[in-house]
Design a protein that fits this description.
By secondary structure, this protein is mostly helical. Helices cover 66% and strands 6% of the residues. The N and C termini lie far apart (72 Å).
Length: 212
C-alpha cells in the first residue's frame, strides 16, 4: 500500500478515536450524510432532518410527520450497541423505517383520526362493534364524546396515538405482501375498533389499581 495513503488513514483513525459519539453524531458531515440517505430512501427532496443526542430512558427514538424526520442518535436502543459501527447501523435502520412512512403513510388521514377525538368525532366513521364488551366500550366512549368530556377525550387521544405507533410497525411488515392501497384501507377500518378495545382495557387496569 502507498505509504502516504496509509499515513492518511492512520491520521483519520486517530482523529476518529479522539471524537466522542456525541461529537460525531452531531457533526455537520454526519448530518449531511444521513440527510442524503433520508432524501434518497424517502424519495422526498424537501424533507428536513433534525438529529438530537438525548440519553434519557424515555427519550424519543425517531419519528416523522411527513415534513421533517427526527432521529435521536443516543436513543436507548442505539446505546445498547457496543461499537460505533453498530450504532451507526442502528441509525441507518431507524432512518430506513421512517423513510418507509415518508413513502407510504397518509399523514393527513392519521392526523384527522387522532385529532378527531378532541373535536368529539370518530374518523373515518363509528366502528361496527361485534362483541358484547366492544358494544359496552363503544357506548361508554360515545357517551364521553357526546358529553364533550375533556379528560376522557384526552385519554382516547393518547390511546389512539399509541395504537398508531404499534399499528404502523405491522403495516410495514405487510407492505411486501399486499398493495399499499389495501393496507391503508385496512388501517383505517380497523383502527377505531382497536381504540375502543384498548380504551376499555386501560380502564380496567386503572380500576384494578384503584382497588389495590
Amino acid at each position: 500500500m502507498n505509504k502516504k495513503v496509509q499515513q492518511k488513514r492512520n491520521r483519520i483513525k486517530n482523529r476518529m478515536g479522539r471524537l466522542t459519539d456525541k461529537d460525531l453524531f452531531l457533526s455537520q458531515s454526519y448530518h449531511d450524510t444521513m440527510l442524503r440517505s433520508v432524501r434518497l430512501l424517502g424519495q422526498k427532496n424537501d424533507i428536513t432532518l433534525f438529529m438530537d443526542y438525548e440519553e434519557s430512558d424515555d427519550a424519543r427514538i425517531a419519528f416523522t410527520n411527513g415534513q421533517f424526520l427526527y432521529l435521536n442518535t443516543a436513543n436507548p436502543i442505539t446505546n445498547l450497541m457496543t461499537s460505533r459501527v453498530s450504532k451507526i447501523k442502528s441509525h441507518e435502520g431507524f432512518i430506513a423505517h421512517e423513510c418507509g412512512h415518508l413513502r407510504c403513510s397518509d399523514f393527513k388521514r392519521r392526523g384527522r383520526y387522532v385529532s378527531g377525538f378532541s373535536r368529539w368525532r370518530v374518523y373515518p366513521k363509528p366502528p361496527q362493534v361485534q362483541l358484547v364488551y366492544e358494544r359496552k366500550a363503544w357506548e361508554e366512549m360515545k357517551g364521553y364524546l357526546n358529553a364533550h368530556n375533556v379528560v376522557a377525550a384526552s385519554v382516547i387521544h393518547k390511546t389512539a396515538s399509541y395504537i398508531i405507533t404499534y399499528w404502523k410497525m405491522f403495516i410495514l411488515k405487510v407492505l411486501c405482501a399486499r398493495s399499499i392501497r389495501a393496507v391503508f384501507k385496512m388501517e383505517f377500518n380497523v383502527m377505531p375498533r382497536l381504540s375502543f378495545i384498548i380504551f376499555q382495557r386501560r380502564k380496567r387496569v386503572r380500576q384494578k389499581r384503584a382497588m389495590d
